[in-house]
Amino acid sequence: MRVADAFRAAYGTSPQTVWHAPGRVNLIGEHTDYNDGFVLPFAVPWGVSAAVTPRTDKTVRLLSLQGHSEPVTIASHEESTGWTRYVVGVLAMLGDRVAGADIAIDGTIPAGAGLSSSAALEVSVASALNDLHELGMTPMEIALLSQKAENGFVGVPSGILDQAASALCQEGHALFLDCRSLASRTIPLDLASHGMSILIIDTQVHHEHSGGEYAKRRAECESAARKLGVPALRDVTDLAAALDRLQGDERKRTMHVVTENHRVEALIGLLRAGAVTEIGALLNASHLSLRDQYEVSSPELDVAVEAAVKGGARGARMTGGGFGGSAIALVADDRLESVRQSVVDAYAERGFQPPRFLPATPAPGAHRLA
């Protein structure tokens, strides 16, 4: 195992445990999680593996196979920078329950693709520490602690979607999650039996959620909810009346969140009815709403979606926080090449960097490797 071998080379001993946590694709339900709404992600085959041995002092030594060739030594939480904040944040949230650790990280998620490498990193480390220190945390508690690390330590005001998907997803299924109650259930996502696939289109335009736009969207939603007198936009029941009371960006953000929650429920209904090929229209509607009402798309994402549909996809939309990253397309297996070529040609016409295509197969959530 590559990450265990790297751990031995760096620290001179074998790791006490190795955990893997996946990235995720959100099938539908974007920017609804921090509005107490509904989401429907599934785990992808790529993720982050963490080889970990605890220490008796507070020192954290971190080696990334995708980073520096030598471990980074962090003597106090305040010293962490860059990607190390996600790991150190997890230890900080665990507090006195753990001391330091020697850690090696190996990630296979395409960087910047919007497939949530940060949550996979947090969940893999939290799962390993939970195992080693026998903390008894459930997968949801691991997800919540990881989210707390990202919110409170890294400073990204993200919802629970990414961490919950990484910790709780099951192979061959999507995860329906109520982000208020945290109730969840698995939804079978058997695309192959219908001759369908989800194709990830990585625009290779990278984004950084800790930038101001993501936080601005969340603040606009919270402001709109206060003006409407509801705990969160999830609680809006009369959309027309709510929109009459709002203006500008807050009106548009509310329109997206309320209709996106309805789209999640509608898509689950179609999946439960076995109408997999019919969900494409909901993907299209989600993208238009994210583009026009939530304003988190980008030219590269819009072109990917439009070209995929033109090439024969049943539906497509951006996935993840936006401003770059990836789109997903629902494609019949016999149209995959046509869709790929359509997107490649559209990118070439506009002088965009060539996109990358990844097949999305619903994978298992966090699990121990060794």
From TrEMBL:
Residues making up the signal peptide according to the UniProt record: none
Domain called GHMP kinase N-terminal: residue spans: 86-168
Entry's family note: Belongs to the GHMP kinase family. GalK subfamily.
Protein's gene: galK
Ranges for domain Galactokinase N-terminal: 6-54
EC number(s) stated in the UniProt entry for this protein: 2.7.1.6
The protein's name: Galactokinase
InterPro entries associated with the record: Galactokinase, Galactokinase_CS, GalKase_N, GHMP_kinase_C_dom, GHMP_kinase_C_sf, GHMP_kinase_N_dom, GHMP_knse_ATP-bd_CS, Mevalonate/galactokinase
Gene3D superfamilies assigned: 3.30.230.10, GHMP kinase, C-terminal domain
Keywords: ATP-binding, Carbohydrate metabolism, Cytoplasm, Galactose metabolism, Kinase, Magnesium, Metal-binding, Nucleotide-binding, Transferase
UniProt-listed GO biological process terms: galactose metabolic process
Enzyme class: transferase
MF (Gene Ontology): ATP binding; galactokinase activity; metal ion binding
GO cellular component terms attached to this protein's record: cytosol
A Pfam short name: GHMP_kinases_N
NCBIfam families listed in its UniProt record: gal_kin
Domain GHMP kinase C-terminal as annotated: residue spans: 268-347
